């Protein structure tokens, strides 16, 4: 079942009222998936927001190996969350809080889009049935968050541009909370708040909010725009000119990109996951979410390898590494 | 789901309780609420009280007392509002919020019970 492009919330309202169960793929950039069960939202993911995998592994809460183990054990039965709790790695409340954080983090980007969507009936998220959120509550939370961001500091460039701490202070001292400190300590003049949230494994909205608060206090300013569409598009929220930017995924990452060190280049907002990865590369080629300007290239060169290739294809589309072609072939074969 | 719900239900069993919530103060979002009504919108209360917690934590840091908040009591003319940050190693960033009817509540008892609920919340 698919729907033509229109405001996502209206379509969702109808489907939730019908009590559908399945995965709703959002096709406009930044792309993402909302999982519903009997009309309740059970999970949401979006490349711009931290998923459960990054919230748990990149933050250092769980070792990547433990996460992968739980995913390997629970993915097929859609019980990854349950495995984490049974294995004594997380308390039920922590799991619930983390899933809610990921769900609302993705909803912030997805529920303001005008987008074509596709419903894959019957699909459930691999994390399992952890929470149930009413669509109206999710929308109310999105609206609250957007208001909170605007109240903190109305310049929305702070969300999509690199975070640049000021070089000198006008006063003698400054007080930062823990998240603000992490942001400043990891701001490398290239990463946007979305990149920083992913590499720190922190809640994306909380990071956006702290960046705007620091902007209000005159501690950080906007640098160059982020190089990826996922970071750059959500405020516009009306653009659906690109093709399918969603990646086939089952709502869970393997935590592979969690290996990234804190001081490594920013993670591109691509789905993790061993099987879906080749397909994600294909999607990147077809969709090419945002044409890169010359300004973006220095950042693009620093991103992770699949993206480096698709970005690199911008200036010279003829060049295509053999390894990537092989991965595409494998991906297509897997279909 | 069960555990947060259980904690909220237990909080609502406290004498005089009119509303309870588990709130993430990094985002201001209520992760769970019970007893929300027209006269007490717990989602709004969650977001607003996040500012209270942040302000007090900042103040403590500025004072360099090297201590943390056990709970915060706000006394209204008709209600008590109790805020209790979760102190577990892994529950950084959450607090319990309890609104009590002043006429029916026993404040000392309520604080004691809320502490117990908080301890159970992340065993």
UniProtKB/TrEMBL annotation, chain B:
This is Secreted protein. It comes from Micromonospora thermarum.
């Amino acid at each position: 079942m698919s729907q033509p492009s229109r405001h996502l919330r209206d379509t969702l309202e109808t489907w939730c009222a019908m009590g559908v169960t399945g995965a709703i793929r959002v096709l406009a950039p930044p792309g993402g998936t909302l999982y519903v069960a009997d009309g309740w939202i059970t999970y949401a993911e979006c490349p711009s927001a931290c998923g459960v995998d990054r919230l748990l592994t990149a933050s250092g809460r769980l070792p990547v190996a433990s996460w992968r183990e739980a995913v390997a054990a629970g993915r097929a039965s859609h019980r990854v969350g349950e495995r984490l709790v049974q294995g004594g790695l997380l308390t039920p409340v922590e799991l619930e809080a983390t899933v809610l954080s990921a769900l609302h983090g993705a909803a912030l980007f997805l529920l303001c889009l005008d987008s074509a969507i596709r419903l894959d009936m019957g699909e459930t998220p691999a994390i399992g049935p952890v929470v149930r959120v009413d669509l109206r509550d999710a929308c109310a939370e999105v609206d609250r968050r957007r208001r909170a961001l605007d109240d903190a500091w109305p310049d929305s460039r702070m969300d999509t541009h690199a975070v640049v701490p000021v070089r000198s202070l006008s006063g003698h001292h400054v007080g930062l909370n823990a998240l603000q400190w992490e942001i400043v300590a990891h701001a490398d003049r290239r990463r946007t708040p979305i990149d920083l949230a992913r590499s720190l494994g922190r809640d994306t909205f909380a990071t956006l909010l702290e960046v705007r608060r620091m902007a209000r206090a005159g501690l950080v300013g906007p640098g160059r725009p982020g190089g990826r569409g996922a970071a750059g598009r959500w405020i516009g929220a009306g653009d659906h000119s690109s093709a399918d930017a969603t990646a086939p995924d089952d709502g869970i990452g393997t935590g592979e990109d969690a290996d990234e060190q804190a001081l490594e280049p920013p993670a591109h907002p691509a789905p993790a996951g061993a099987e879906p990865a080749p397909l994600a590369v294909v999607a990147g080629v077809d969709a090419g979410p945002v044409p890169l300007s010359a300004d973006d290239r220095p950042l693009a060169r620093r991103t992770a390898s699949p993206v480096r290739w698709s970005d690199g294809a911008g200036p010279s589309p003829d060049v295509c590494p053999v390894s990537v072609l092989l991965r595409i072939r494998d991906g297509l074969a897997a279909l | 789901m069960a555990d947060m719900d259980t904690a909220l239900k237990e909080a609502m069993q406290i004498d005089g309780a009119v509303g309870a919530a588990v709130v993430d103060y990094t985002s201001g979002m209520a992760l769970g609420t019970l007893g929300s009504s027209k006269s007490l919108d717990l989602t709004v209360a969650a977001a607003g009280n996040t500012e209270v917690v942040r302000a007090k934590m900042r103040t403590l840091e500025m004072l360099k007392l090297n201590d943390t908040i056990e709970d915060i009591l706000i006394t209204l003319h008709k209600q008590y509002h109790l805020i209790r940050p979760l102190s577990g190693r892994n529950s950084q960033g959450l607090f319990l919020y309890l609104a009590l009817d002043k006429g029916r509540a026993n404040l000392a008892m309520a604080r004691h019970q809320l502490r117990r609920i908080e301890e159970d919340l992340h065993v």
